[in-house]
Amino acid sequence: MMDDYIWVFLWPVFGLLQNEVYGAEEIGECMNITNDLSTFSRCCRLPELELSEEKKAIAESCHRATIADQPVPFTEEEEEEMYECFQECYLNATNWLNADLKPDENVIIAEYNEELKNFPQWKESIIRTVQTCIANDYTKPEAKCKSGAFQFGNCLERNMFLNCPEDSWQGTDEICVNTKRTFEKCMINSNKY
């Protein structure tokens, strides 16, 4: 499960913008977009990467610090805050965030280039994905964890799906085709997601 964080909203505002672009009848479809990693990996053959022991230890430490001992039940907002803080902790510890809590494009791309050296077909897709997501400011000054790391991670996941290299795309069934169509329609005009 920790590996999923590596492939690492403002939905009402996004919905209003989509209403202007597509009309009210398509708002429901766009508002219901989620990051479904099982669909993503079934439709797009992602490179099989292993977390190093060091990164596993970082993930476990961040999990203990931000999620492990939280009382249940918790609200949707509290759950998002926990994952936001987990992602911020992890990205900080792996140097993906700079001192201003902004994602560091050079560090992220260099790390992906190293980890994906056996998957050259992903190089351009990763660069395009990282640059798309870096272009957005996800910081949340009023939040407990201010970096917007959770939203940045969501952006990476969604854009990796959209930028899946042709030779890695394996989704010819209706679910894959419809998921990609929905993502393209609802997200391509907004770099935020």
UniProtKB/TrEMBL annotation:
Keyword set, alphabetical order: Secreted, Signal
- The signal peptide here is 1-23
**Superkingdom, taxonomy of origin:** Eukaryota
Q: Where in the cell is it found?
A: Secreted
One of the record's GO cellular component terms:
extracellular region
Family matches, as InterPro entries: Odorant-binding_protein, PBP_GOBP_sf
Output one GO MF annotation.
odorant binding
The UniProt similarity line reads: Belongs to the PBP/GOBP family.
The name this protein carries in UniProt is Odorant binding protein 23
Q: Which gene encodes it?
A: OBP23
